[in-house]
Write a structure and sequence with these properties.
Strand order of the largest sheet: 3-2-1-4-5-7-6
CATH class: Alpha Beta
Shape: globular
Largest sheet: 7 strands, mixed
Oligomer: single chain
Bound molecules: S-adenosylmethionine
């Protein structure tokens, strides 16, 4: 492999396969936590949240379906069969935590009404389009208690511009709301004042 390819592969591994991620290592503390993951896919990060944090309830939000506005989906997942397989894998992986998880098989903005107020954290990793990330933050930030944390994956757009939407939506939210944005590759998070 050329140097560039080696570096890109290493960074991709860091981005996707190294657990625990900075969000759970550095962003969230406390006991008996109630939180949400938006975008669960195979459940790898949900498993990390459940094993690293002291969680009472983790709401797992994912429609496991392709939809018209979800532009990155065809290149990422190809067809609904691949998402069906991911769903089955996630349900199997997370089954040992059955007492701590609550599945919501809906799109994030439709799922928000099923999430209680005053939660401890939200991790945003669904549709990475700028408008979708903005909508996720707008729908879920009000659910987070003061001192709780909203964050997510893929604050990262150097060698591939794939996640410009995350960087733009999150940065704009932080500046407009005068809150401190913390970033540790590949995660971002904001503690609600
Ligand atoms: C990058 S994967 C999530 C990976 C997972 N967070 C992890 O790190 O293990 C993105 C997932 O988001 C889901 N998704 C897409 N649009 C969504 C939406 N509007 N609300 C919730 N989940 C969504 C997809 O079905 C897919 O499973």
């Amino acid at each position: 492999m050329t140097d560039d390819k080696v570096i890109v592969t290493m960074l991709s591994d860091l981005k996707h396969r190294v657990f625990p991620r900075p969000f759970e290592r550095l962003g969230v503390t406390g006991r008996g936590l109630v939180g949400v993951e938006i975008g669960v896919h195979k459940g790898e990060h949900a498993e990390s949240l459940l094993s690293y944090l002291d969680i009472k309830t983790l709401y797992l939000v994912d429609p496991y379906a392709l939809y018209a506005e979800y532009e990155e989906s065809r290149s990422h997942y190809g067809d609904d069969d691949s998402l069906d397989l991911a769903k089955a894998e996630a349900m199997g992986r997370l089954a040992p935590n059955a007492g701590k998880i609550s599945w919501v098989f809906k799109r994030s903005v439709d799922a928000a009404t099923e999430i209680p107020d005053g939660i401890d954290f939200v991790y945003v990793d669904g549709d990475h389009e700028e408008s979708s990330v903005r909508a996720d933050i707008a729908s879920f930030y009000p659910k987070v208690r003061s001192g709780g944390v909203i964050g997510g994956h893929d604050f990262y757009n150097g060698f591939t511009r794939q996640h410009d939407g995350v960087v733009r939506a999150v940065s704009q939210f932080a500046v407009r709301n005068d809150v401190t944005l913390q970033v540790e590759l590949p995660d971002w998070w904001i503690q609600k004042p």
